[in-house]
Amino acid sequence: MNALSRIAYPIAGLLVIAFVWEASILVFRIPTFVLPSIPSIAVALWNDLPALLAGLRVTLYEAGSGYVLGGVAAIVLALVFVLMPLVERAAMPIVVAVNSVPVVAYAPVALVALGMGSASKIAMVALAAGFAVFVNAMNGLKAVDPAAVNLLRSFGAGPLRTIWTLRLPAALPAIASGLRVAIVRSIIIAIVAEMLGAYAGLGQIIYLATQQVDFLRVWAAIVLASAASMAIYGLFAWIDRRLVWWK
């Protein structure tokens, strides 16, 4: 797929969504407080742009910080598990148990322990993003052909050398996929966490606007968050294609 196609297809998809959106309002006579028209949302977004951008900066800071912390911790944990099978057998049930509960369920604990500032949001994002990266990293590190591992060991390579020269390069495509999924989850969790309790951020704006029955502002914040998510995901996909070019 060339560069023009990568741009044209998403634009075509957005145009189809816009057409269906406006047609649905006309055909089904949907109330504006449920589904406002796209021009009215655009006007609300423009009029409230400074406040929305300020909220977006807070949300992206929380999402980005949690993403980095969770991603690094997940890759390190996966490497430790591969190097130490006994540790994996002992700790894996705990990892699975912690992540079997929706991350938002930990919000009350995070808010009480870390407060309503950014720290609680970063912790929740790190937990959500980290598990997505961890699962992919584990699958990638363990998917290496055992024959290749045995061959490398026959040349005197130890566990660390095997990880560095064989398992980690082979796992890069899987890790990159996990990182792409995690970045979108990070923004979602950050917004949801802000809606549950925060001093700033897009989630707080959405929560307050809902309380004030200002649904145009709600939709403006949603559109801005969606646009930021798509742009960041596109950037990560581009980086992925450049760094993991062989997959």
UniProtKB/TrEMBL annotation:
This is NitT/TauT family transport system permease protein. Its main location: membrane. InterPro entries: MetI-like, MetI-like_sf. GO terms for biological process: transmembrane transport. One of its GO terms (cellular component) is plasma membrane. Belongs to the binding-protein-dependent transport system permease family. It is found in: Cell membrane. The chain crosses the membrane at residues 7-28, 66-84, 90-115, 122-141, 186-210, 216-239. It comes from Stella humosa. The lineage of its organism: Bacteria, Pseudomonadati, Pseudomonadota, Alphaproteobacteria, Rhodospirillales.
